[in-house]
Amino acid sequence: MADGAVTQAPSFVVSVVIATYNVAKYLPEFLASLEAQTIGIESVELIFVNDGSTDRSGELVGSWAAGRESHVRYIEQTNGGAAAARNAGLELVTGAWVTFADPDDVLDSRYFEEVEKFITLHARPDMAVLASHLMILDESTKEYKNSHALRAKFNKGSRVVDLLVEPTVQISGGTTFVRVSDLRSSGLRFDERVQPNFEDGHFISRFFLQTDTHLLGIMASAKYFYRTRQDGSSLIQSSQIKPEKYTTLLRLGFLSLLREAALLGPVPRWLENVVLYDLIWYFKNEMAIRSLTAAAPADRFDEFHALVGEILSLISKDAIRTFDLMGVDFIIKETLLFGYSSESREPEYVRIMEVDEARQQVHLSYVFAGPLSRSGS
């Protein structure tokens, strides 16, 4: 910048890019939560991107936006997915911070007031990422629950966390705020090839890596209510049967992140935790009584397991052993530690799973890798 040049101050403290696709059923509740903001929603820049909706989403947003042109932008594009819609919205952002709320969710009435309060209290140039408090909106009961698997990071209240000391996980675009000036400097955008989900976690992790920041602002009082749809129609819920979930996502999402980090130095523990958190859900879902992965395409499994092996080769065994951000069954950790290596492993102990006294039978379980030795049996 030339000497004497004046940098224009951001027009808003916070901008929100809202990728909108076939959410007419949920939009009235989301829009009502915007109108209920205690800070006054006119002080927040809202950019709706209608991503080729085929329901009344565009009509509802367009009608709501009319007369609010001072702080609301509405654009339309052919369907390209959430990442493409967010990238289009990012081009229009004029605020100092940007987040990516989803229009099927709901915001607490004090949401933006708490966000702006935190930004004012914790103004520091080396903190470029903030996390609001993700809670669950149970659609069947209409209750708000603090039951998300990653809720523990909010237990100590609002604070600034150093990820090199406390390697927590932040992967939700809806609850993440990034500093726009750092985003512009990095040139980073959502990778539209990462399908069918994890584009949020990929974007946020790359932002941390490319901006060389490791501070995360935890905003415990800014509550964001994530809707669990009763009909199972959300992208997260429906992605389990898509082939890309088992190939493209692992290759362009997890593996590309780890390789990028490895070029910069040792892979940081926080990134190992990000990948492990998402990867472990594949195995947790498989072990569930009603397995979400049971309908997954079997012809992708060989490639899936090959990719998992590559991913685990870039993650330390210590990261797997100590991972505790959610409950992980013993067998899953053993699988990640030994199931994808050439290392043989003899059973160290046998677990009694069930005793049938009537039949005089016992169900025993043990873990091994490689050929099972029969010596001493």
Structural summary, described in words:
This protein is of the alpha/beta class and 377 residues long. 33% of the residues lie in helices and 20% in strands. It has twelve helices and twelve strands. The strands form two sheets. Strands 1, 2, 3, 4, 5, 6, 7, 8, 9 and 10 form a ten-stranded mixed beta sheet that branches. A two-stranded antiparallel ribbon has the order 11-12. A hairpin with a 4-residue loop joins strand 6 and strand 7. The N and C termini lie far apart (76 Å).
Summarize the structure.
The protein has 377 residues and is α/β, with parallel strands linked by helices. It has 12 helices and 12 strands.
Gross morphology is globular
| Strand portion | 15-25%
Superfamily (CATH H level) name of the largest domain = Spore Coat Polysaccharide Biosynthesis Protein SpsA, Chain A
> How many structural units, i.e. domains?
2
Mean pLDDT: 90
- What is the terminal separation in angstroms? 76 Å
Overall CATH class of the largest domain? Alpha Beta
In terms of per-residue confidence, which ranges show pLDDT below 50 for 5 or more consecutive residues?
Answer: 1-6
